[in-house]
Amino acid sequence: MSEELRESDLDAVREQLGREPTVPFSVIARCSDGHPLVIRNRPLDADGHPFPTIFWLTCPTAVRSVSRLESDGWIGRLADDPELVERIEKAHAAYASERGRMAPGAERWGGVGGTDHGLKCLHAHYAYHLAGGDDVVGAWTAARVEPVHPPELRRRVAAIDQGTNSTRLLVLQPRDGEPIEICRDMVITRLGKSVDEKGTLDPAAIERAAEAIAWFRRRASALHAEEVRIGATSAVRDASDREDFLSRVRDMTGIEPEVIEGEREAALSFLGGTRGLDPADGPFLLVDIGGGSTEFVTGRTPGVMEHSISTQMGSVRLTERVRPSDPPTGDDLRRFESLVRAQLDEVERIVPVEEGRTLVAVAGTATTLQACTLGLERYDPDLVHRSMLTLADAERTLGELAAMTNEERAAIPVMPTGRGDVIVAGASILVHAMRRFGFEQALISETDILDGLALELLGVR
Ligand SMILES: [Zn+2]
Questions:
Q1: Which residues pair with 87 in a beta bridge?
Q2: How far is the CA of 192 from the centre of ligand 1 (A)?
Q3: Residues 6+ apart with CB under 8 A from 265
């Protein structure tokens, strides 16, 4: 399983805590100038011992504000409030099951901060609230300590992207120049499971994805996003029963999800993926390999799409079509190749790929392939974003991944949970596209349609 962590964040959290962090973690919320506010700890430490506090408040200013409430005696007063008892128990139960999702069995280690009932630590409840937990005490704390750093900048926006394989959240705060990332997070929900085969969504997958969206939506609100949009792509687009999913999300979030059609997806992906690149490196060809579809997009100017095609191939879809052995056989790999090549014929007819000078590859397949190629021990987005992946390296890493079993791939430190079984298909798309269109290297970008959705809310073009 992979958790994202930048070297700069590790340094910042070490300094905030005044000690070496004891478990691997990711930063899941930041203050206005970008320093870590809440981290998500892995439920097990390096020796496999339980670490029951998943969400941890790290910003020292926030910690001090909450400590003041505690020393004013609020823990006792809140715990004794008969109107709160039931709602506190509910928060404990939800926290425990969240931990169980991260590590099966870990739901038995108690609720917020490892407590089963009552109140022990307001910091843990506040961190849970900021993470998106439905926590009455955390929300009460927020109302008393925020803004933690006055005057807090406002006009934050949030985008949630529901793809075929993953559900992702981005919260941005506008600023002169580059917006500041307040939160970027991802969970694999595989909403597109069996859509290619059956044409309908799996009820369990609908529930899984809708819950993830509701959780991210609460986090966006806790982080004061004034506008929140939810975009859904290939899996929802293709499913005949998409209304079941859309109404479930509507009910759980109060937001009308947007079904993003292929051409819009291409434009948003191009906006997010190429914005900020040097125009002198254009024209650009962007490839966005998703779970259900892959977009090829061209444009001479960063951020401005000119031609695009959305193809019906993706890492999940190809894996479900070929149903490779574990590990895949040579025949399986040739079937991936022939399915990809058939789609690339179509791409060449519609999009002037030969005009592209810089190939930009976005989304989880490309970034994970690069992290494997770089041999990272921990997924550090700063090392992946806008780094070059050569065709020779991409081919070699694909070969290594294809020689492994699903279990072996899942155990690679930078492999996100739920990507190991589909990355061979996804990486095949990238390698065959590079070969076919004559690109010796690809610029790997962490930013993509998710950024496009959020930037559009900020009015950035
Ligand atoms: Zn802070």
A1: none
A2: 38
A3: 233, 234, 288, 293, 295, 310, 449
Q: Which residues pair with 310 in a beta bridge?
A: 295
Q: What phi, psi does 167 have (nearest 5°)? A: -120, 130
pLDDT digit string, tens, across residues 339-393: 999 999 999 999 999 999 999 999 999 999 999 999 999 999 999 999 999 999 9
Task: Give the ranges where 379-446 is alpha helix by DSSP (H).
Answer: 381-384, 391-402, 406-410, 423-437
- 3.40.50.620, 3.30.1330.60, 3.30.70.60, 3.30.420.40: CATH of 156-260: 3.30.420.40
CATH of domain 276-452: 3.30.420.150
Token couple for 220: 């966006």
Q: How far is the CA of 140 from the centre of ligand 1 (A)?
A: 18
- The ranges assigned to domains in the chain are 7-145, 156-260, 276-452
Q: Rounded to the nearest whole angstrom, what is the distance from the C-alpha of residue 63 to the centroid of ligand 1?
A: 9
Query: Quick check: 380 and 5 in contact, CB under 8 A?
Result: yes
Mean pLDDT is lowest, of 44-53, 66-75, 403-412, for 44-53
Contact between 130 and 37 under an 8 Å Cβ cutoff? The reply is yes
200-233 pLDDT tens trace: 999 999 999 999 999 999 999 999 999 999 999 9
**pLDDT at position 194 over 90:** no
CA-to-CA dists, residue 419 to 122, 235, 410, 412, 423, angstroms: 36, 16, 7, 11, 6
Q: What is the DSSP letter of 458?
A: T
Q: Cα(125) to centroid of ligand 1, in Å?
A: 17
CA 248 to centroid of ligand 1, rounded, Å: 35
Same fold for the pair 156-260 and 276-452: yes
Distance 161 CA to ligand 1 centre (A): 27
Count how many residues are written for the chain.
461
In this prediction, residues 59-71 reach a mean pLDDT of 98
Q: What is the pLDDT of residue 1?
A: 43
